[in-house]
């Protein structure tokens, strides 16, 4: 199935939190599968991105107000028969369906080709900024297409956002991707020691095999 036949869903996280556990479980499996590619390839991080169903939103930083998630899917009807196929807007070459209220949504790894979420950051430290999180892609170019084609929709919803912020593990070879493909700029790079994970703010369950570097990046909108 080609990208032209795919669609994008825009779901406020406030609605997702009220969906059945099966909906969140499906998303958790998809996001973890996306991050597992780096786990296997680089053998640095030893724990899944989302530890368990009950920590889905907190592990992604989506346990605050004002968050939104986008998903690219092959078949909207397979997500829910309650989604009206005739009620969509257009972003680029894709149909975009907004799902503002909780529904029993079905998300599978064969149907969902990318995920992308945004969370507002503390104003006192990052004024007018959102962090991009939960960014995965299982179809060639689908993640980048989702980002490029929904950025305008995101900015219309979150009019106060002037910057996007991300933090990536340098050893995962993501800095160049975000710079060249998505227009981010690296601001700083710090060494994270394996022995100082918890004192640096990582969860107790987070485990790595070695020290690594974290790059802070931003994109001015």
Account of the 3D structure:
With 221 residues, the protein is α+β, with helices and mostly antiparallel strands. It has a single domain, classed as Aminopeptidase. Helix content is 26%, strand content 28%. The chain has 6 helices and 9 strands. A 9-stranded mixed sheet has the order 3-4-1-2-5-6-7-9-8, with helices on both faces. The longest helix is centred in the first third of the chain and has 22 residues. The mean pLDDT is 94. This is Rmd6 protein. It comes from Maudiozyma humilis.
Tell me which CATH architecture applies here: 3-Layer(aba) Sandwich
Net shape? globular
Structural class: alpha+beta
Major sheet summary line? 9 strands, mixed
Q: What's the tally of helices? A: 6
Distance between the termini: 32 Å
How do the strands of the widest beta sheet line up side by side? 3-4-1-2-5-6-7-9-8
CATH class identity: Alpha Beta
Q: Average pLDDT across residues?
A: 94
Q: What is the percentage of strand-forming residues?
A: 25-35%
CATH topology: Aminopeptidase
Protein name: Rmd6 protein
Question: What are the salient characteristics of this protein?
Answer:
alpha+beta; globular; Aminopeptidase; 221 residues
Give the helices and strands, then pairings.
Blueprint: E1 7-12, H1 13-16, H2 21-42, H3 56-59, E2 68-73, H4 76-79, E3 89-91, E4 94-98, E5 112-120, E6 129-137, H5 142-157, E7 163-169, H6 175-182, E8 185-192, E9 212-220
Parallel strand pairs: 1-4, 6-7
Antiparallel strand pairs: 1-2, 2-5, 3-4, 5-6, 7-9, 8-9
């Amino acid at each position: 199935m080609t990208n032209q036949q795919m669609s994008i869903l825009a779901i406020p996280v406030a609605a997702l939190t009220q969906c059945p556990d099966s909906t969140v479980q499906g998303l958790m499996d998809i996001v973890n599968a996306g991050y597992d590619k780096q786990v296997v390839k680089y053998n640095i991080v030893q724990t899944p991105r989302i530890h368990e169903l009950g920590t889905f939103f907190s592990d992604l930083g989506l346990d605050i107000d004002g968050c939104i998630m986008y998903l690219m899917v092959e078949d909207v009807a397979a997500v829910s028969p309650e989604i009206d196929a005739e009620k969509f807007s257009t972003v680029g070459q894709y149909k975009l369906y907004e799902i503002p209220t909780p529904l029993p949504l079905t998300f599978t790894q064969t149907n969902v080709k990318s995920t992308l979420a945004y969370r507002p950051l503390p104003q006192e430290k990052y004024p007018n900024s959102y962090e991009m999180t939960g960014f995965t892609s299982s179809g060639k170019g689908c993640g980048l297409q989702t980002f490029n084609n929904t950025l305008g929709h995101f900015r219309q919803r979150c009019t106060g956002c002037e910057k996007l912020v991300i933090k990536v593990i340098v050893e995962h070879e993501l800095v160049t991707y975000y710079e060249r493909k998505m227009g981010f700029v690296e601001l700083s790079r710090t060494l994270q020691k394996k022995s100082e994970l918890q004192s640096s703010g990582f969860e107790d369950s987070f485990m790595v095999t070695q020290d690594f570097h974290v790059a802070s990046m931003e994109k001015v909108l």
